[in-house]
Every structure is written in structure tokens, then in C-alpha cells.
Specification:
253 residues, alpha/beta, 60s Ribosomal Protein L30, Chain: A, Alpha/beta knot, 2 domains, six-stranded parallel beta sheet, 23% strand, elongated
Length: 253
Amino acid sequence: MNEHDTDMIFGRNSVREAMRSGREIDVVYVQENAEKNLSEIISLARKKGIPVKQVPKNKLDQMLRFNDPSGNINHQGIAVRVARVEYASIEDAERLAEEKGEPLFLIALDGIEDPRNLGAIVRSAEIFGAHGVIITKRKSAGMTGLAAKTASGAEEYIPVIKVSNLAATIDEIKKKGVFVAAADMGGQSLDKTDLTGAMMLVIGSEGEGISRLVRDKADFIVSIDMYGHVESLNASVAAAILMYEKKRQDRRK
């Protein structure tokens, strides 16, 4: 595996799920004196024939610094070098929906640039039964090590799809009979909106929300009712609320 074609995944849950999913792993780095707390993962690596290397904490910190320049990396004493994530396609999400016998359910992100938010949304999407998460090539976080750490390995089980143009993707999706709901201020109240059936939920960035073009292309706008003084939710929190409500409605139908 060429080092230029690799990425780092770190944190116990993320590393464990990467191994369980069969992801190609080059090497496991374990912080010196932390082996006892990581015995399960080390044992799994050795069973799979993956080299395990002990490194000092400062060396592990340095190896992962590109994931978060601030240096505030909670790697929990373990990291692995893996092949860079291979982004999926809409067809992959459709196959997953077909395998589950469910109407297609997609999450599309319009301008989410924080990898932690991306990771949290991917994690929620997998938990709440979405069949794919769509991100854009420009003005979007990618599935870096920090995003994967936040996702806790969920990216191994749900397609993450990178597209060039979200507006064009919406047009493509709508031709498949999928309704598109964009989350934004001033829309229909969430508890009064029918989210059942084939659906794409579009989540915008905290700062700017969804773009005007994406808003115009959506079938309808949906808003989460708020009862406090703060006027907006973190994007990943809003996404989780919307996903939960969509699946709740599907189960009751």
C-alpha cells in the first residue's frame, strides 16, 4: 500500500469497526504502555495478520496532526493506516435499499465543512437506517480520519457518496420518484410534514444553511420547531432529529 494512497483512522471504536468490516489495513499503531487497554483490538489485528507497532504517545500525536492542526486529538492510544476511503455511488445506496426491502432514504449535505459534523451525521444516518450520505466535492468536508473517528466506524456500513453538483444530483434523484425535503428556516413544521416513503433529506451548513438553488429544487422545506432563545441547532443535531422523525413515521405507516 503506497503511503500517498493511505489515510489514518484512530480511536477504539473506529479502528475496531474498520477491522470487522474487512477494510484493507496496512499497520496498527499502538501507544506504548497502552497495550493492556487495547488487548481486544491487538488480538484481532494479529489474527488477521496485520502488523502491530508500538510507538510513543508523542509520535502517535505527530502522525495524526494533519487530522486536526490544533493537536487536540483523542486517539485513545491506537491508530491504523488504511487505504483512502473509496466513495460510493447512488447505485450503491439503491442496492442497499433494495437488499433491505425499503424505499430509498438519502441524506445530502450542502456545505458541511466541519469533519466532526460530517462524522456525526454519517453515524446518525447509519443508526437511523439511511441508505447513503451525499457530500459534494467542493465546500465540503471529506471522510478524513477525524470524520471517521466521530462516525465511530459507521462509514464502513453506509455508502458515502461524493458528487460534483448537488443541484444536478437532486434532479437525478427526483426522476427516480424520490421526494426531496430541505431543512431550513420558515418551512413546514416537522411534526406536520409527511416524510414517509422514498426521501432525500438535505441539510445545510450552520452558517449559511442550504443554498438558494438547492432550496428552489426541493419539493418542500421542513423546519424543526424551537422553543428556547437560541435560534438554530448544530447541523448534526438537526440532521439526527430529522432522520429520527422520518424513520418514526415510516414505522407507523
